[in-house]
Write a structure and sequence with these properties.
CATH architecture of the domain at 474-552: Sandwich
Family: Belongs to the glycosyl hydrolase 13 family.
Bound molecules: alpha-D-glucopyranose, calcium ion
Number of helices: 19
Protein name: Oligo-1,6-glucosidase
Number of strands: 22
Strand order of the largest sheet: 1-2-5-10-12-13-14-15
Keywords: Glycosidase, Hydrolase
Helix content: 25-40%
InterPro entries: GH, GH13_cat_dom, Glyco_hydro_b, O16G_dom_2
Shape: globular
CATH superfamily of the domain at 474-552: Golgi alpha-mannosidase II
CATH class of the domain at 474-552: Mainly Beta
GO molecular function: alpha-amylase activity
Radius of gyration: 24 Å
CATH topology of the domain at 474-552: Immunoglobulin-like
Largest sheet: 8 strands, parallel, barrel
């Protein structure tokens, strides 16, 4: 595999609105990120991905951009951002911006001009169709946040526009070369500023199956999931290749795609040495539909990595701003403690690919346990989840309980810095509730505690970067070990060294026979150090949720 500058990096996702507030308005800001750069450097972070901070009405928390060339005043100014880039560089940290170009905001000037003159130049930046009340819609696709993808064009009773996400997120028409050129210009403007690259939002959606047509109805609403259309839409690669050629490739930028539904044969095109993107997220575990078990978690991530073996790098996560907290999702509630949290961390962190940490994950932040009312939350996706649950026959209390398990707000509650009011996130009134668990789960309590989840993450990062082992963790061959042994999750990484990652993914002890003897324990989540006799045996007994990272003879 051709070596790239970003291969050995560790990345960290910041959701700026909830990270750290420096001016008391209850909203995290760029200055807050600058203040915490030393914290991130100390943790061992090389790349920061910032969720969107561009001008935005925040209908979808900044994923609805009204000006791509400026920062929303709530987050700061372009000067603040320039300072962040410069301060990051001093510390060897690259800044990755979020690239949201499937859609913009309905408050972007392109859309305003399109509303003024739908048949003019900017009308063609969007998907606008003629429509009279009573007509059938051009297609029956369901938007990701619920309801039809079609909405009346403001100021025009006889026109509608397409939005696959929120109605305040009109889709940009990538079939139009003029639009594409505008997008590339904007991307190059940012890359010229010295950012390290982009995380690329919802990018698969830029190719629509045209002309618009209906797909099979898959809900009581008479609509059809966008996925049905996407499976049928071919040709996204042409757009992506042009995009990469016009922008990223010229700058040797780091790019990570939010890609779903790609076909096996497309993998080299997406993330091969000369792919459209540097890497893409592995969402295989996030996509598990049934209840999570150690077995389906293991099968998902092992399959994902075997699938890209020899082709390219995946980016590994246990959570992000769109998912509940990973520890709450992947560990049974009754078993959730520091030991099981560390086990999960060790499993995903040492897989081939690039580890991403989502803010707060490094201190073991968990989901909310309850809210009294849906209005305690904020996400625009909540209403549809809640109403669908009611529609399916759940009571209000049950619908709320369901929402709490799945809402994206679980990841968006403020970072828990300490046990003071508002978890030290703001001196003002936080824009979103603080998770009451901050009294016990916060950075201040962990930063000097050698047994903490935080210190464990630090150790994981320094192990990955340890010059003796780095090439093995970055380029070593991945092979599952005893995948059929129940509730065991073990794999080897073999390069210059031979390393095994072994996890006992259950609350009972478990015996494992190893392929050879252990030479050295590199990391463990228990206080138990293997005594000399266990080094002499290939049979080991793992305690509940034990994780071992060992070098093999
Ligand atoms: C991506 C983002 C998500 C957003 C959506 C629309 O999935 O991660 O937060 O709602 O795209 O931009
Ligand atoms: Ca602020």
């Amino acid at each position: 595999m051709e070596k790239k500058w970003w291969h050995n990096k560790v990345a960290y996702q910041i959701y700026p609105k909830s990270f750290y507030d420096t001016n008391g308005d209850g909203i995290g800001d760029i200055n807050g990120v600058i203040e915490k750069l030393d914290y991130l450097r100390n943790l061992g972070i090389d790349i920061i991905w910032l969720s969107p901070i561009y001008c935005s009405p925040l209908a979808d928390q900044g994923y609805d951009i009204s000006n791509y060339y400026d920062i929303d005043p709530r987050f700061g100014t372009i000067d603040d951002l320039d300072r962040l880039i410069a301060e990051g560089k001093k510390r060897g940290i690259g800044i990755v911006m979020d690239l949201v170009v499937n859609h913009c905001s309905d408050e972007h000037e392109w859309f305003k001009k399109a509303c003024e003159d739908p048949d003019g130049e900017y009308g063609k930046f969007f998907y606008i169709e003629d429509y009279k009340d009573g007509d059938p819609l051009p297609c029956n696709w369901r938007s990701y946040f619920g309801g039809s993808v079609w909405e009346k064009l403001p100021g025009h009773d006889d026109k509608i526009y397409l939005h696959v996400f929120h109605k305040k997120q009109p889709d940009l028409n990538w079939e139009n070369p003029k639009l594409r050129k505008e997008v590339y210009k904007m991307i190059n403007w940012w890359l010229d500023k010295g950012i390290a690259g982009f995380r690329i939002d919802a990018i698969i959606n830029i190719k629509k199956k045209l002309p618009f047509s209906d797909y099979s109805v898959d809900g009581d609403d008479g609509l059809s999931s966008i996925d049905n259309m996407l499976k049928d839409a071919t040709g996204v690669g042409e757009f992506l290749n042009e995009l990469a050629d016009e922008t990223f490739r010229k700058h040797d930028a780091f790019t990570v795609g939010e890609v779903f539904n790609e076909k096996d044969e497309e993998l080299p095109l997406f993330i091969g040495s000369h792919g459209y993107f540097s890497t893409m997220f592995d969402f295989s575990a996030e996509s598990i539909k049934e209840d999570i078990s150690p077995e389906n978690y293991k099968n998902a991530i092992f399959k994902a990595h075997e699938r890209v073996d020899g082709i390219g790098f995946l980016s590994n996560i246990i959570e992000n701003h769109d998912e509940p907290r990973g520890v709450s999702r992947f560990i049974p509630k009754e078993d959730l403690d520091d030991t099981s949290k560390k086990m999960l961390a060790g499993i995903y962190f040492l897989l081939p690919g690039l580890p991403f940490i989502y803010q707060g994950q490094e201190i073991g932040m968990e989901n909310l346990d309850k809210v009294n009312d849906i209005n305690d939350l904020d996400d625009c996706a909540n209403a549809n989840i809640y109403e669908t649950a009611l529609h399916e026959g759940k009571t209000h209390a049950e619908a709320l309980a369901h929402l709490i398990n799945v809402t994206r707000d679980n990841a968006r509650t403020p970072f828990q810095w300490d046990d003071s009011e508002n978890a030290g996130f703001t001196d003002g009134r936080s824009w979103l509730m603080v998770n009451p668990k901050y009294k016990n789960i916060n950075l201040a309590a962990q930063i000097n505690d050698s047994d903490s989840v935080f210190i464990f993450y630090k150790e994981l990062i320094s192990l990955r970067k340890n010059p003796e082992y780095e090439s093995t963790f970055v380029y070593g061959k991945f092979a599952p070990y005893k995948p059929a042994q129940k509730n065991l999750l073990a794999y080897s990484r073999v390069g210059e060294k031979s390393v095994m990652v072994i996890a006992n993914y259950q609350k009972d002890a478990q015996t494992l026979s190893l392929p050879s003897k252990i030479k050295k324990v590199l990391l463990s989540n228990t206080s138990k150090t293997l005594d000399n006799s266990s080094f002499n045996s290939t049979e080991i007994v793992l305690s509940p949720y034990e994780l071992l990272v060992v070098e093999m003879v």
